[in-house]
Design brief:
alpha+beta, Beta Polymerase, domain 2, 2 domains, five-stranded mixed β-sheet, 6 helices
Length: 156
């Protein structure tokens, strides 16, 4: 067996050990785990952990293993969440992808201030003094009825 093959085998073993530790200690279970040790880079093992449609799981995973997590919005509006770092000499990458439709559906409803609403819709017209005088309070008819009873002595 040549040195390159021995290095590649040792790298696979290292990646497998790290993958086992990641699964044992992860607060969330991934959809898949992949070991990568390429013949052209036999001394660079990697573990790739995929969370299907679960960017929050990537962040939890990153927090547990002190990886750096980032969100990147792609030109099509999809958001790629990735956490990466080096554990025991093995490159670790966890990732998830949300489509543009999923991102839009999960977006929080924006809070709009009164000033922003006025800016968006324009100012509402204020009633004139005459229009205000013509408006009646819902209890006006009750007050009128009571006033009529008082002046007529109760006979309507």
């Amino acid at each position: 067996m040549n040195t390159s093959s021995q290095t590649q085998r040792a790298s696979f073993t290292a990646a497998l050990s790290v993958a086992e530790a990641l699964l044992a200690g992860s607060p969330v279970l991934p959809s898949s785990v992949e070991l990568q040790v390429y013949p052209w880079t036999p001394a660079t093992p990697a573990v790739v952990v995929y969370f299907h449609d679960e960017p929050d799981s990537v962040r939890q995973f990153a927090g547990r293993f002190e990886l750096v997590a980032t969100d990147t919005t792609r030109p099509d509006g999809a958001v790629h969440t990735e956490a990466s770092g080096l554990l025991c000499g093995v490159q670790v990458r966890a990732w998830s992808l949300l489509s543009a439709e999923q991102v839009k559906a999960s977006a929080p409803i924006p809070v709009v201030t009164l000033a922003e609403a006025v800016a968006l819709m324009g100012a509402l017209p204020m009633p004139t003094a005459g229009e205000l005088a013509e408006q009646r309070h819902p209890l006006d008819h009750v007050l009128e009825h009571l006033a009529d009873e008082r002046t007529t002595g109760g006979a309507a």
